[in-house]
Amino acid sequence: MRTGETTSPHRRLVGRRILHYDAVESTQDTAKELLDEATAEGSVVWADRQVSGRGRHGRAWASPPGGLYLSMVLKPKDAHAQVLGLLLGIPLVKALRHFGVLAALKWPNDVVYQDRKLAGILSEGVYRRDVFYVVVGIGVNTNVDLDRLPPEVREKATTLKREVSLYVANEEFLDYFLDKAEEHYSRYLNTPVDLLMKDYRAHCLTVGRRVSIETARGRIVGLGVDVTSAGALVVLDDKGVKHEITDGSVEHLR
Ligand code: BTN
């Protein structure tokens, strides 16, 4: 059920309208339903819990109460679904750092602290009447009880409330994050992507780390050396061969 609608005129691009629900199947699906409305662009769907939250590669995203679950409707300057998923990780990291956790990005779309996952991003491109939209979904373990997460997720996850002593309400976190997202998205609209990707690399722990990556074509082990302007991870394997990986599940090795 929708429990509120807020308009924030100081934001023009991301979060000028926030639709708040107590529960939805997935905020991604609710956000996509808005695409038929003329005012969809810049809207944010925020839910207190999701019944069928989903992550990358069709995995489930456990969404118990206490977490922050949102999807943003964007009309990008190009078919930049992957790129926007990466770039919007930067304001998310900034918001977590603002509230006291020294988080960083793990390529492509995880936000981690001390190797434990705090947040995930799912970016999906959608055509509606010949217009290309990107719906960027973000799930943050803000005030989730870890024991509400499935055991296999729990052992590799952490939450904002576990890492900081002050209570941070989801409203407060969302407000700060959306201001930062607006700033970064506006920069994206006005700046070549290859310049912005430098900022992504600076926030990404995978660059400079030894990694093991499960890809559709098998496992690659080597050193993460770069992220291209299209968002691919460049890995130099142990035989000295360079791979450009567009999708995969990454493990940071010691
Ligand atoms: C991942 O780490 O695999 C990405 C997780 C993305 C989860 C968010 S929660 C809000 C939005 N709605 C969804 O169903 N998924 C995204």
Keyword list:
single chain, 254 residues, alpha+beta, BirA Bifunctional Protein, domain 2, SH3 type barrels, eight-stranded mixed beta sheet, five-stranded antiparallel beta sheet, 7 helices, 13 strands, 25% helix, 35% strand, globular, binds biotin
What does this structure look like?
The chain has 254 residues and is α+β, with helices and mostly antiparallel strands. The protein has 2 domains: 2-202, BirA Bifunctional Protein, domain 2; 206-252, SH3 type barrels (Roll), CATH 2.30.30. Helices cover 25% and strands 35% of the residues. The protein is built from 7 helices and 13 strands. The strands form 2 sheets. The chain has an 8-stranded mixed β-sheet, with helices on both faces. Strands 12-11-10-9-13 form a 5-stranded antiparallel β-sheet. A hairpin with a 2-residue loop joins strand 6 (110-113) and strand 7 (116-128). Helix 3 crosses helix 6. It is globular and about 55 Å long. The site of biotin has 21 residues, from helix 1, strand 4, strand 7 and strand 8.
How is the secondary structure organized here?
Elements: E1 2-7, E2 17-24, H1 27-33, E3 43-50, E4 68-74, H2 81-87, H3 89-98, E5 104-106, E6 110-113, E7 116-128, E8 131-140, H4 151-154, H5 160-163, H6 170-190, H7 193-203, E9 210-215, E10 218-227, E11 233-237, E12 242-245, E13 249-252
Parallel strand pairs: 2-3
Antiparallel strand pairs: 1-2, 3-4, 4-8, 5-6, 6-7, 7-8, 9-10, 9-13, 10-11, 11-12
Helix pairs in contact: 3-6
Bound molecules: biotin.
Biotin binds next to helix 1, strand 4, strand 7 and strand 8.
